[in-house]
Amino acid sequence: MLLTTLMTAAALNAAAPTGIQFQHKDWEIVCDNTRTCPAAGYSGESGGISVLITREGGASGQISGELIIGDADVPEFQERPLTEPLTLTLDGSSLGTLSYDTALSHYRIPQTLLAPLIKAIKGSGAVAFSAAPDYHWPLSGAGAYAVLLKMDEFQGRIGTATALTKTGNGAIDQIPPAVPAPIIHAAPTLSTEGKDLTATEIKAVYQRLETEECETVDEESRSGRLYPLDNGHQLVEALCWRAAYNEGYAYLVMPTGQPVEQGQLVTHDGSAYAHGEISASQRGRGIADCMRSDSWVWDGSRFMHSESMTSGDCRNLVIGGTWQLPTLTSTVIKAH
Q1: DSSP states of 60-125 as a string?
Q2: Which residue positions in the chain have pLDDT lower than 50?
């Protein structure tokens, strides 16, 4: 009985969790299905910097840190990114320096500074970064404790010595392990050129889309394409909705020869299809400083949701988004 109980507990611990998103004031966290949790903090309402603190799942999960200087409204940084060393200060006193990492194209926070930085943002002191000649960026601590607490909770660390917030003497071996990213074997597909749907097919597809949360698309905008996936399956693409700066396409997959309106819906928020992959990319607002993206990969029988991520809060830092914060990740093995 004891062995069975232990095996059941181990199986539950190893099960892939569902990713989460949580934001409080100037900090946010996104955790994925491998139990990895990146937490992002910001200077304030707009511009400045963003710090990313990432922790892997499991009792021995490592912590890493990065920093990005916003350039969305700083033309001089768009022309020549700042790469000078940064000084981290707490209440005006230096805690150490950060170096620019050319591989990351932004700054890496050294391990020696992570512990004092985390301690500082949980407290009430003034945390800031500066660079010569006279650059100075504050880092808000508002919301940091709540976000780090959410990280500890998601990773099962509360009450143990590994927690960043509520530590204790709990057994470390009860902390759920990190979970390997699921593996998706992409299947080979036929040409992605596709062909336009006929007028009859378009009418049938849009009658179906009216039941799939698609907005009413005016007659002139109604269009669609049919892509052959392999000898036994095909994919339909049709405009589902349109907004001020975003639009979403519905994708339906079905056996070859089956009426197009009888396809199985993959998503109604897609953006493009190519080479066996449906991608979706949507702006959080018009200037595109915050984004959300998803991907689905064809495995020979269905489209597998392979990735889902956000780029972080809308803070006017980086056009195209500041970070890559996944709630769902996978390892895709490409078809040969």
Answers
A1: T--EEEEEEE--TT-HHHHHS---S-EEEEETTEEEEEEEEETTTTEEEE-HHHHHHHHHHHHSSS
A2: 1-13
